[in-house]
């Protein structure tokens, strides 16, 4: 008997499911795309247990008659392609014909559909096999229920993450398609609570406010490169509100949510060096391109695309976005740059010379302790450009980046308190009401205990609004609203599991220290500079900030004397 044989249909479907259905969010994505392709104007999603226990997607699209309903659960059955030529210019979101049979193969699956009110079909499937087909009276549209996802594939089920993590992935999927289709109403509900509620909007700015929240929308500018074979348009966040992760970068090609390197690189190039390394601006970018210039059939989950003229598309995005940012004064153009001379000082350059020696202080947030005696030779001499401390020790001269040094000091003190569960908090004089995005709200729910251990007293206040009552004392000088948004962005990038708890704490404390540390272009008096040096010399690693950037360097006496040819 030969070694090669044909696989049976259930095994084939489970293999296909491994490619199409990675996690509950994959199911929601596939069903959402089918609903949109069916012309739905309203899509309602209900989940339980982060989608692991139950998913229901209901739409008011065109629906199906009995024959089409039965065909829809067969592999490679689709209404979206007629022949091979249609693959050259795919305009629909789904087209492979694998989603429904793949999902049904790894769950208890029910499809209810009707092409017109009253006359409908219900199909129940267990592990890819039809259990029962029933007639019923349903409203026009389609409802699909997915119960106990991966119940028959325990190896895959045990690799799913916590309910909070899986819910966050679903929120991001629903939010992205809500951004792409402001003409369609979306809702996402879990345990009776609405996580996303986006009613049909008249214009994209309204939808951005619905999905990302009013505060985030106010910080973004609208841009549009205009009509043509390639059109880039959307909303761009200000560089000052860039976050540590890409969670707020939403990229679309012809209405399809994608993760594309060409587009992401074009966005990064547009912002240039206005954003620190490791930070990413909030961007909602829609790319409309002729179907012949893009191949969407390069990935089973259709999350990647391939462009025929990638350099042209890259330049279209970069140039259009950079122009919009420049018009807002966010990115200076070459002709706007000019040298600063002594007679032409701006408000930020108020010192009478490039350096100051013990100039009067204008404030020092979270000033380091002045009680510790200064280590021998580590003595502050001057401040250069209100940003760098010039000091001396026994070996020579020191140049200290005051922001990086203070960041290291705050980090060490904050982390020591956090590890002992003894973080000192600073009560706000007036509680702050923060409007979070659905994704941020889910992240906060999942990591609420860790935020509380770090000194953030945050409580729900209705919907996705929360009340902030206190912050850690070490971060008291940072803007509390910006800090919370920044930390929630960080938390979304860290896996919520027991093994990742230490990494999450390090990430949050690092960001808090950076936000609270004294900034560059901030004048210090002699006492303030000396106090910072004293505290810096008490920490274990005084050479770098928590991000790994150098905090100081030394020019030895030997090097100085050789430079002046005294040796």
TrEMBL record:
Sequence ranges assigned to domain DNA mismatch repair protein S5 in this UniProt record: 208-326
InterPro entries, A to Z: DNA_mismatch_repair_CS, DNA_mismatch_repair_MutL, DNA_mismatch_S5_2-like, HATPase_C_sf, MutL/Mlh/PMS, MutL/Mlh/Pms-like, MutL_C, MutL_C_dimsub
Gene Ontology CC annotation, any one: mismatch repair complex
Keyword annotations from UniProtKB, A to Z: DNA damage, DNA repair, Endonuclease, Hydrolase, Nuclease
Region: Disordered, residue numbers: 343-375
Pfam family membership, one: DNA_mis_repair
Protein's UniProt keywords contain Chloroplast: no
An individual GO BP term: mismatch repair
Annotated MutL C-terminal dimerisation domain residues: 380-524
GO terms assigned for molecular function: ATP binding; ATP hydrolysis activity; ATP-dependent DNA damage sensor activity; endonuclease activity; mismatched DNA binding
Function recorded in the entry: This protein is involved in the repair of mismatches in DNA. It is required for dam-dependent methyl-directed DNA mismatch repair. May act as a 'molecular matchmaker', a protein that promotes the formation of a stable complex between two or more DNA-binding proteins in an ATP-dependent manner without itself being part of a final effector complex.
HAMAP family attached to this UniProt entry: DNA_mis_repair (MF_00149)
Family: Belongs to the DNA mismatch repair MutL/HexB family.
Protein name stated in the entry: DNA mismatch repair protein MutL
């Amino acid at each position: 008997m030969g070694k090669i044989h044909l696989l049976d249909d259930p095994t084939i479907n489970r293999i296909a499911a491994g490619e199409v259905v990675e996690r509950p969010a994959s199911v929601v994505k596939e069903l959402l795309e089918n609903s949109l392709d069916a012309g739905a104007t309203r899509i309602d999603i209900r989940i339980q247990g982060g989608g692991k226990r139950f998913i229901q997607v209901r739409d008011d699209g065109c629906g199906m008659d009995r024959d089409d309903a039965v065909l829809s659960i067969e592999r490679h059955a689709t209404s979206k392609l007629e022949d091979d030529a249609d693959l050259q210019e795919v305009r629909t979101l789904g087209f492979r014909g694998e989603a429904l049979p793949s999902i049904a193969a790894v769950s208890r699956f029910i499809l209810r559909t009707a092409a017109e009110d009253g006359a409908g079909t219900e199909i129940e499937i267990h592990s890819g096999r039809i259990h029962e087909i029933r007639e019923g009276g349903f409203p026009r549209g389609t409802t699909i229920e997915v119960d106990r996802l991966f119940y028959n594939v325990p190896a895959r089920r045990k690799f799913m993450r916590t309910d909070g993590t899986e819910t966050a992935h679903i929120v991001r999927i629903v939010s992205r398609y809500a951004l792409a289709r402001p003409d369609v109403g979306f809702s996402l509900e879990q345990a009776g609570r609405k996580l996303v509620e986006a009613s049909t909007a008249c214009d994209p700015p309204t939808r951005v406010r619905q999905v990302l929240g009013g505060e985030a929308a106010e910080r973004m500018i609208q841009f549009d490169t205009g009509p043509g074979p390639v059109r880039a348009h959307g909303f761009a966040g200000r560089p000052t509100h860039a976050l540590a992760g890409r969670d707020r970068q939403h990229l679309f090609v012809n209405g399809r949510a994608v993760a594309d390197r060409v587009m992401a690189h074009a966005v990064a190039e547009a912002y240039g060096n206005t954003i620190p390394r490791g930070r990413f601006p909030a961007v909602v970018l829609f790319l409309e391109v002729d179907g012949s210039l893009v191949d969407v059939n390069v990935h089973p989950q259709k999350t990647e695309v391939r462009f025929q003229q990638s350099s042209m598309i890259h330049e279209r995005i970069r140039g259009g976005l950079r122009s919009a940012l420049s018009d807002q004064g966010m990115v200076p153009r070459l002709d706007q740059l000019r040298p600063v001379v002594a007679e032409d000082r701006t408000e930020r350059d108020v010192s009478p010379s490039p350096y100051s020696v013990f100039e009067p202080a204008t404030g020092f947030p979270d000033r380091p302790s002045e009680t510790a005696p200064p280590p021998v030779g580590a003595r502050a001499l001057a401040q250069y450009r209100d940003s760098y401390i010039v000091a001396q020790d026994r070996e020579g001269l020191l140049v200290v980046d005051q922001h990086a040094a203070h960041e290291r000091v705050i980090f060490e003190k904050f982390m020591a308190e956090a590890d002992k569960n003894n973080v000192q908090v600073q009560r706000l004089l007036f509680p702050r009401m923060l409007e979070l995005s659905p994704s941020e709200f889910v992240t906060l729910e999942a990591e609420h205990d860790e935020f509380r251990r770090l000194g953030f007293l945050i409580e729900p206040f209705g919907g996705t609004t929360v009340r902030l009552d206190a912050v850690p004392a070490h971060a008291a000088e940072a803007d509390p609203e910006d800090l919370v948004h920044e930390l929630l962005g960080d938390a979304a990038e860290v896996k919520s599991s027991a093994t990742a708890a230490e990494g999450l704490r390090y990430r949050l404390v690092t960001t808090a220290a950076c936000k609270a540390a004294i900034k560059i272009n901030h004048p210090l008096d002699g006492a303030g500079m000396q106090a910072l040096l004293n505290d810096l010399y008490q920490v274990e690693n005084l050479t770098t900030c928590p991000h790994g950037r150098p905090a100081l360097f030394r020019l030895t006496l030997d090097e100085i004397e050789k430079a002046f040819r005294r040796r």
